[in-house]
Write a structure and sequence with these properties.
Elements: H1 7-19, E1 22-30, H2 31-34, E2 43-51, E3 53-54, E4 60-65, H3 69-76, E5 79-85, E6 98-107, H4 111-120, E7 133-146, E8 152-156, H5 157-160, H6 167-170, H7 173-183, H8 185-195, E9 204-208, E10 212-217, E11 220-225, H9 233-255
Antiparallel strand pairs: 1-2, 1-5, 3-4, 4-7, 5-6, 6-7, 7-8, 9-10, 10-11
Helix pairs in contact: 7-8, 8-9
Length: about 260
């Protein structure tokens, strides 16, 4: 039996998945599709770029077309892996974190999964209703974290996953997000600029879960982790108010 992983590394893996909006999807492309000379049983590794969101339990969510090569591969063999690359802004990428998630992709009609994906990727609404596009959830089996030199661990799916928050938060998520964007855009701006050090105006909230909230500005995304978990709309409101006060206090300190 594998020992339980370091909680700090598990937390880093979860933050990496929640903080990125795209990943490299690897699937097993059937031989004849990859090469006319390949036998019917042969498969070729096929890597492609996909947009990704994560569900409340950390299961990755994809919206992909049946016309895409990776969808043809998944229809034959649902085993896939996703590479979440957190090294893009580093001068020495191999010192940065990356996570490879292994699992099985399954088509789902769950409206919650679809809503979270479209909130994360609002432009996808332009094609989400096309007949060839379907939402998939990936049931995670294992993950391999490289957090830098000498910090490399396998993490079992059960250790990586998080327990979904109570329905009281999941059912109110869309309303909380809409309310923050419509009534408290200034607060979201403070979260991004002062708490996360992310410049620019026009940040919006795209999701909230027990551990934090997700922000977006055009092609940039950001993750704000909560110091303690929230469980329902009331605790989420209290947390968001507390973070606004913290951001304003930081601004006053900086001005002084």
């Amino acid at each position: 039996m594998n020992p339980r992983p370091d909680p700090e590394l598990v937390a880093q893996a979860r933050t990496l998945m929640r903080g990125l909006d795209r990943a490299t999807l690897a699937s097993a492309l059937p031989g004849p599709l990859a090469s006319p000379d390949a036998g019917p049983a042969a498969a070729w590794p096929y890597a492609s770029l996909v947009l990704v969101a994560v569900d409340h339990d950390l299961a990755p969510i994809l919206l992909i077309s049946t016309l895409a090569e990776h969808s043809k591969a998944i229809a034959t063999d649902p085993r896939v892996s996703l590479l979440f690359d957190g090294t893009s802004e580093l001068a020495q990428p191999l010192t940065g974190p990356r996570l490879t998630v292994l699992g099985r992709a399954e088509r789902t009609a769950d409206p919650q999964a679809r809503r979270r994906f479209l909130a994360r990727h609002p432009d996808a609404a332009l094609y989400a209703d096309f007949r060839d596009f379907h939402v998939h959830r990936i049931a995670v089996a294992r993950a391999h974290l490289v957090a830098g030199f000498g910090r490399i661990r396998w993490i079992e799916g059960a250790d990586l996953a998080v327990a979904p928050p109570p329905a009281a938060l999941i059912e109110r998520e869309a309303g909380i997000v809409d309310h923050m964007n419509d009534e408290h855009a200034d607060a979201i701006q403070l979260y991004a600029n002062r708490l996360l050090g992310r410049p620019g105006e026009g940040w919006r909230m795209t999701g909230i879960d027990a551990a934090g909230c997700d922000l977006r500005r055009a092609g940039d995304v950001a993750r704000l982790e909560f110091p303690t978990p929230v469980h329902d709309a009331d605790s989420a409101r209290a947390m968001l108010v507390s973070l606004v006060k913290q951001a304003r206090a930081q601004g006053e300190t900086g001005a002084g």
